[in-house]
Amino acid sequence: MADLRPSTRARDAQYLRTHVRPAFGDTPLGKLDRTSIRKWAADLGSQSGSNLAPATIRKVVQL
């Protein structure tokens, strides 16, 4: 993570605040399963009013 540019760090922090944290809150990583992550990823693109591009959704999921 030390080799990331400041702009990349800022973008990733925003993705965490706006997409990951609201969906999973304080759920420990060990409690997340593939099914819930796949459902969440699918929901990112299908939310009413969502303007997330497929590439953005992939970046959010990769976090």
Automatic annotation (TrEMBL):
Gene Ontology terms describing biological process: DNA integration
UniProt keyword annotations, A-Z: DNA-binding
SUPFAM superfamilies documented for this protein: DNA breaking-rejoining enzymes
PROSITE patterns per the UniProt record, alphabetical: CB (PS51900)
UniProt domain Core-binding (CB): residue ranges: 1-63
Gene3D superfamilies cross-referenced by the UniProt entry: 1.10.150.130
InterPro entries, A to Z: CB, DNA_brk_join_enz, Integrase_recombinase_N, Integrase_SAM-like_N
Protein name in UniProt: Unannotated protein
Upper lineage: unclassified sequences, metagenomes, ecological metagenomes
